[in-house]
Amino acid sequence: MDYTKHREAIERMYNDLATISRMVTTTKPNGAKQQGLVQIYADQPCFLSAGAAAANTQTDNQNDIRASMKLFIAPEVEIRQGDEIVISRFGAPHRIWRYNAGEPLPPYPTHQEVELLREDYA
User: Fold this and answer.
1) What are the pLDDT digits (tens) for 44-58?
2) Which among 5, 21, 29, 74 is least buried, having the fewest CB atoms inside 10 angstroms?
3) With contact defined as beta carbons under 8 Å apart, do 4 and 11 qualify?
4) Residue span of the structural domain in which 26 resides
5) Which CATH number covers residue 105?
């Protein structure tokens, strides 16, 4: 089955941009190994959808935020659990959120869906 038209219809909803980074081991010039975030993909068109309702926990010192979202993105983009995903809403540089990827579902021919988790404090 040709999924071209289905994919085009889904990708018309992509109004956000995702930059995906992951922890990799690199070797310094002196031979020492270090772990660090390396950008794998930049400005990939995507769609960020609301997941479960955000849970806020107020303590004496801070308000902890735990939010779950769902990311729709092209099936060719390889996302692994634990990847850091920075979403720019509507391509606006001042509307940026950082998430960690959950275990991705197997991709569909037209798109893939990835659970994202944001843990922060206000």
Assistant:
1) 999 999 876 555 566
2) 29
3) no
4) 4-121
5) 2.40.10.270
